[in-house]
Structures are given as C-alpha cells and as structure tokens.
Amino acid sequence: MTNMGPGRTRQTQVYVRGLGGERPAVPVAPERLQAAAQAKLAAADFAYIAGGAGAERTMRANLAAFERVRLLPRGLSGRRERDLGVELFGQSLGSPLLLAPIGVLEAAHAEADLAVARAAAAEGVPFIFSSQASVPMEQCAAAMGATPRWFQLYWGTDDEVTRSFVRRAEACGASAIVLTLDTTLLGWRPRDLDLGSLPFLRGRGIAQYLSDPVFRSRLDASLPAPGTAPPRTAALLRAGAELRARGRPYHLSLTQMRAAAARFTATYTRPDLGWDDLSRLREWTGLPILLKGILHPDDAREAVTRGVDGLIVSNHGGRQIDGEVAALDMLPDVVAVAGDLPVLLDSGVRTGSDVAKALALGARAVLLGRPYVYGLAIAGEAGVREVIQNVLAEFDLTLGLLGVGAARELGARHVVR
Known about the structure:
alpha/beta; oxidoreductase; eight-stranded parallel sheet; Alpha-hydroxy-acid oxidizing protein; Alpha-hydoxy_acid_DH_FMN; Aldolase_TIM; TIM Barrel; FMN-dep_DH; 47% helix
C-alpha cells in the first residue's frame, strides 16, 4: 500500500473510528482544545498554563500575526509524498516540530514532564527539558531513548547551580543548550496574581533544583533558625502538607522543602545577565548554544558575533511583557541578519498551517507550547501524542495542497504578508 503520509493517515484514522461512533478524545480545533483542558483543570492551574502578561495583548498579537500571513499555493505541482524532515546541528529530524520547554507541567497532569517525554519519543519529536520541570531531566532522558532532547537554561544568581545544570544536561544526552533571555524577571501575570498563586512557593516546578547536588548543598545554610517557624495557620498547614509530599522523593524534610522553595524564589532570576556571560557558558559546554527570546535584529547581529549556534525568535508566548511585538512579525528581520545560523520560532504556533507559515518566513523549525500542554491535561501521554499527530498531519496536508514536496522547500514565494 502506498504511504499516505501523516496527513491522510491521521485523517483516515479519525474518520474510520467515527464510523463506529468514536470521536477523538483530544479536540482538533485550537479553541476547543483549550476549552477541554480548562474543564479538566483547577482554576489556578489553568491560569498558570493559559495566562499571559498584563492585559494579554501580546498573546493576542502572536495569534493575530499568523492571521495576517496568507499562504499562496501553486497548482499542478503537488507530490505523492512529502518530506517533512529538517536538519539541526548535524541531527536529522523527522519534522520541523519541537516541544517547547514549559515549567510546572504537574499543573496539567500528575505524570508531568515524564508523560511528555514518552509522547515525544513515541512520535519522534524532540523535547526541550525545562529548568522549571516537575520531573528531573535524567528521568525524562531515560524515557526518551535515542530521541533528541535539548535543555532550556534559566541562569540564576548562583552560577554553580547553573553550571551543574549544564553538566547534568550533557550527561543525560542533551544535544543543545537553550539559554532563555526573556525571563530575567517574572512578568506581571494578572491571572496568577488575582488568585495569589505562584506554584514555586508550593514546591512545584523545581524538580531540577531538588535533584541537583549543588543546589541541595546550599539548603543547610538556608534553614531557618530555631524558634522562627511560621505560625500554624490553616493556609500554611495546607502549603506545608504539599511541600512535605513533594519532598519525599528527594528525601527532604518539610523544613528543607520550605528552605528549598525560598532559596529557589530568591535566586532563580538574574536581571543583570549580559552578553559577556555567553563566553562563560561557552567555556562550560561544547554543546550548541541557542538564545531563546531574540526579537530585535541588532540582538541577532550581536549573537552572531558572539559565536552562538542558533536563535529562537520568541516573546515567551506573551507571558512576559504586555503589548510586546509579535514573534512572527520579527522573524523575517532576524532571519535576514542571522546568516547561516539556524533560526527557530516560538510563540503563537497552534496549527500545522502555522508551522508552514513560520518555515516560509525563514524559520528552520518551530516550538509548540500550550497546545501540547492542553493535550497533556486532557489525556496525559496519549493526549500529547494526539496533539503532535494533529499538528503534523495538518502540516503535511498543507505542504501537499501548497504544491510543496519538502519542508525545506518552503519560502517567501509561498506566503503573502
């Protein structure tokens, strides 16, 4: 039987099951996908995952930017089969899709990053481990086998912890380090603020730290002095129970967990991170270094001169600055000055046609974020797999309908801005 490709294969699977009255567990349409996830999640968890900065203008701008780009198909030029593959840093990938680093995935599902790692491996899609993960990178790497994984780095005020993260990423087979530039301070997020909810204070999303030998070595020095324990209010008792539960896998007491959460929140951001720090990161690792959060062409030029290996055009999914420029709008300008450096896009990607638009505007690959987290919330590992399958199916069909035989052939001639 002729290979139908992921697009027709996925379509056929869904429609055949529909004959028996079975509908997909994970909605295909982006709006319905988000709504189904919201119905599964506690209010604070959904707020953290779905929310953005300020009035969420940047989140809307990211989506509007994709609306403004129109695809332009060519007739009588289709191919029976399409090649979705791309190459990044000497690795051949089956598609231009990577799963973005997202913290506190336990807010979506109990298996958190581990479920995502398994789904990524099953679908052959790289997963970028987050510094703010709910499962240590070593466990996720073990679940992924030979599937590529990268590590996203937040550079905090403790350089030795940062360096330890890099060493661990190398040891667990990461093939790139993604330094995030746009979160040197936590953005103003009204959804979380209105609920008074910051997950890190409850010990959520700090598994990389709790499992890190350098970070753990700092805890004894940060323990509270005798007689300074907080008053036993009901809210603190509930928070203490959560911290105690989260400390068990790491053999930490409640007091140590409180100290760990406090130390993390005091040290994880570094507002004065500068260009000269890149030279130190280069000394620490021989892995390719990508800068995530590049929007200004001048920053892209500086990155080239500093010898970085790749750029990710991103505004953190609209979670950091309200009213910020849309990532897709800046993609062509960054690509124009990046030279031979691979440029990836993050922020606002929801569908397979979005992937095609980003590649046509010069991205080598894209990072998918909130949609896979919604799939995780709805159906765990299986939900993540369905979201990946749906995005790649639509991307494959979009290529075919555009008259394009390979992802690498997409270019400016295929879009109207």
